[in-house]
Amino acid sequence: MTAPRIDALQYANWSEKIFRQMREGGVDAVHATITYHENFRETVLNIEAWNRRFERHPDLIFQGFSAADITLAQDTGRTAIFFGSQNPSCIEDDIGLVEVLHRLGLRFMQLSYNNQSLLATGCYEAEDTGLTRMGREVVTEMNRVGLVVDMSHSGERSTLEAIDHSTRPIAITHANPASWHAARRNKSDRVLDALSESGGMLGFSLYPHHLRGGSDCTLTDFCEMVARTADRIGPDRVGIGTDLCQDQPDSVVDWMRAGRWTKRMDYGEGSAAAPGFPPMPGWFRDNRDFGQIEAGLRGTGLSDTDVAGIMGTNWRAFFDRSFGPVS
Predict the structure, then answer these.
(1) What's domain 6-322's architecture?
(2) Domain parsing of the chain, residue ranges
(3) What is the pLDDT of residues 92-149, one digit of tens each?
(4) Prediction pTM value
(5) Contact by Cβ (8 Å): 148, 323
(6) Buried b (16+ CB within 10 A) or exposed e, 10-31
């Protein structure tokens, strides 16, 4: 069987067109954001919407629960969809909802989304106070049930403390090295080294605000960055997490960045003059272009094994270690 192609983060305006593009691009599994600032009940409504998609398109997609579902996806020519949350709002202030949501299929949860949460500090706060008391308890519970700690939008101290406190490897599903492009959301070498030493995973983001040169970033520049990072933290510690927000209206940015915490628009990274979604690089329009990334990685001189790992084998191994309860 060929190595899988896995994307560790997408938040698209989901449609049959996108699901068919996943199949055209040979994408076997996608970690899909199903909730940002939604509370528990609203998150359940989003799961209901996904259930309808699975019913309408059973020949294209199905819900993934374990790493074995990636093999099922490859065997049946479909894409396994794994649920994730980009904020802990879905558990409200109730640690018991960690297990409930895991049973409903949630497999990743960020401890913060740019701002301070009940659990940790986001990367846009002026002061990072690290994991809160509740944050430490929730990480322990996430470790117990098999819900992956994701620190993609968290501050440096919070991320390092999550790595240190967690008894299972964590993930940064969609970010790049800050040494390559100094976006607030990208990660320092100190964080990347700690992530690697703990057995965690980094997913490289293709969202233009995270790329050197933005939408004009070249495939060669991106792939050479991936290769250098693999050399630094290990070729088995890296994968792809595109952060593809395909077909979303610009109004969705309001929800992603501002949620309910402000009455004003929070422009976040990028230009206040262009608050919407930036255009993707020309070499990665959508899921059909995963082959471009693979070809670009081969062009850097990475071995076939390392390229296969980055495109999906590493994530599959991480899913296998991470999605079940502690044995």
Answers:
(1) Alpha-Beta Barrel (3.20)
(2) 6-322
(3) 999 999 999 999 999 999 999 999 999 999 999 999 999 999 999 999 999 999 999 9
(4) 0.96
(5) yes
(6) bbbebeeebbbbbbebbbbbbb
